[in-house]
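Quick check before the chapter quiz. The format below is the same one you will see on the exam, so make sure you can read both the input and the output lines.
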Amino acid sequence: MGLAAMLAERRPAAPLRLPAWPVLLAGPALAFSAVLPLGLQYICALLAIIILGVPHGALDGEIARALLRPRLGLAWFPAFSLPYLSLFALVLLAWHIAPVSTLAAFLTASVWHFGTEDAPSGTHLEAVMGGGLPIAVPTLVHPAATTAVFATAAGTPLPHPPDWLWTASLAWLALAIVWSGHTVLCGRGRVLIVPYLLAGVFVVLPPLTAFAIYFVGVHAPAHTAALIRNPMRAPRVQDGRSAILLALPITALTLLIGAGLWPFYGGPVPERLLSLTIQGLAALTLPHMLLDAWLTQRERHPRSPSSPD
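Here is the expected output.
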């Protein structure tokens, strides 16, 4: 029996269920936090992102473990973590050397990352529509508040949304209108339910609060569910409970790294936490995306059993 078949047999045939309590608790709590002073809004949203959102990326360690441990033994972790942390450090350095350019690169990468992970079976256009929503909608509806978040995250003054961001957001809106109409005419109107609900969240709530709800309620669960459904990537991640437990060690390591970086960021606590968190997310997103792209390419073009590794 092949490895894929053996792994597939280990997975229960019952419908996939992820723990609902993080979303059920975080959603209403974050929505309520929108009435708090801005600094407390920031802290509530960022703590939700860190505690409930970051662990999904920590599962990259499980992917690396499955790939590297059979070949390297206990050396698998240094072989995984050193390149990962090197890319992490390079992105953090880029934030300090060229903050606006790094912000633009991060937002561009985020559009594709969110779109392809949250709706992996959709078209490229659907990926751009879904991935661009958490950036374009707050930019268009709450330009001042969104600019304040980006300026704080980048550590550089931004009196208004950069021209490139405003232009891209308007282009996204035009495409979204056309795509929505085409989707309805094709009889696929149900596809629009989640995007329209999310758009409503971003219209009603402050940008960072809405993003936190999206990140912990849509993006992180979607990534985790996709990993559970793909036994070839992380065989030990079999359900929501195992995903949470297996993510804990690298999540703890990530928090320790963040604590070590804390003294290098200045300003009041809310702004300091915002800058560190967003820059850290950007720094983690690069190796996370590269690993996913490499795995996707590897799965689409598997080597024959006789081919050398």
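If your answer matched, good. The chain has 13 helices and no strands.
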